[in-house]
Design a protein that fits this description.
Number of strands: 11
Strand order of the largest sheet: 8-7-5-6-11
Strand content: 15-25%
Order of helices and strands: EEHEEHHHEHEHHEEHEEHEHHH
Distance between the termini: 49 Å
Structural class: alpha+beta
Oligomer: single chain
Number of helices: 12
Protein name: MYND-type domain-containing protein
GO molecular function, one term: zinc ion binding
Helix content: 40-55%
InterPro entries: DUF8205, Znf_MYND
Number of domains: 1
Low-confidence stretches: none
Keywords: Metal-binding, Zinc, Zinc-finger
Largest sheet: 5 strands, mixed
Bound molecules: zinc ion
């Protein structure tokens, strides 16, 4: 039996490959707070490094959000993003997403690393469970509920996320090291950069930073494809044609994850209480009927309510 199956989107990785090929997220060895000293102390819960007690204390107001997501029973979102980017099929369309959003086709200069910021969500894999949680009166308990990773937004490179990106700057020195390794393996001409995965509700945090090489096949796909065929959420086994755009790339990635009901790709995990609460709290961003309707439409159309949610949050912060 072949270890990978092919469909119209490309080669889908096998379970074995998904298990084996976990991409390593950039962890960094510098203190997360001051970014100057070598980190020698670790947060006992999430292993974030600090140079001193003082720095750890200073960072705590922001850090507690990220750290709470590492509580017992919560899925490891950092790990999920590594699994996501290790999946060659999903990585291919995330690469196209980056090419389109950061206009890499128009920027042949590969000497500079690109920086992409992708906002992700972790939400119930069943739309019915989603709407049970996504309301003011939702009851949050520890009962098992399956969640899955989804991608919600890619920010253009010039967006300054203010306190979010300040907390975890792009790891320039580490990037340079990886670039050198790349040139040695003859890949220096390909676009190379980092994706920061950002997650959260009211406070958003960078959960991981991973480097990615944009391979020629993704560049070709971005250059030549006119339409993307997205799995039809309403009629399994059929597809809908969408013009190739950052939006349709995200839609495709989300739909492919949604289709993986057997969790062959390991992007589904049990939702902890904190993650459930984040879905419930997201309700607050839709105070009136029109916004609610917009959110519901987005959920049904895209399989993701966070896209509408993020628009609201980012607009409120003047980031869009
Ligand atoms: Zn420090
Ligand atoms: Zn921590």
């Amino acid at each position: 039996m072949s270890s990978a199956s092919s469909n119209s989107y490309g080669l889908s990785p096998s379970r074995k490959e998904v298990n084996r090929g976990r991409h390593k997220a950039y962890k960094g060895s510098l203190c997360k707070n001051c970014q100057t000293n070598e980190g020698s102390k670790k947060c006992p819960k999430c292993k974030t490094v600090y140079c001193s007690k003082k720095c750890q204390k200073e960072d705590w107001p922001q850090h507690k959000v990220l750290c709470a997501l590492h509580s017992e029973g919560e899925p490891d979102i950092n790990k999920l993003t590594q699994i996501l980017i290790s999946n060659r099929l999903l990585r291919r369309y995330i690469a196209v997403l980056i090419i389109l959003k950061l206009k890499l086709l128009q920027k042949p200069d590969t000497a500079r690393s690109f920086h992409a910021q992708i906002i992700i969500g972790f939400e119930p894999s069943s739309i019915f469970d989603f709407f049970d949680l996504f309301k003011r009166s939702a009851v949050i308990d520890a009962s098992p509920l399956q969640g899955m990773l989804q991608i919600h937004k890619i920010l253009p490179e010039h967006v300054d996320l203010g306190d979010i990106s300040k907390r975890v700057p792009f790891p320039e020195s580490e990037l340079e090291k990886r670039r050198t390794d790349l040139s040695q393996s003859g890949l220096a001409t390909l676009p190379f950069g980092v994706i920061q995965f950002i997650y959260g509700a009211e406070s958003m945090v960078v959960v991981s930073a991973v480097d990615i090489v944009i391979h020629t096949e993704s560049m070709e796909l971005a250059r030549n494809a006119n339409d993307l065929e997205i799995p039809n959420p309403f009629q399994p086994g059929t597809t809908i044609k969408k013009p190739l755009s950052p939006y349709s790339c995200m839609e495709l990635v989300n739909m492919l994850i949604r289709q993986d009901t057997k969790n062959k790709w390991l992007l589904r995990m049990n939702m902890g209480v904190n993650h459930k609460k984040m879905i419930k709290d997201a309700w607050v961003a839709f105070p009136d009927y029109v916004k609610q309707l917009k959110a519901f439409n987005a959920k049904v159309a895209l399989g993701s309510i966070y896209t509408a949610y993020m628009e609201v949050i980012l607009q409120d912060r003047g980031l869009m």
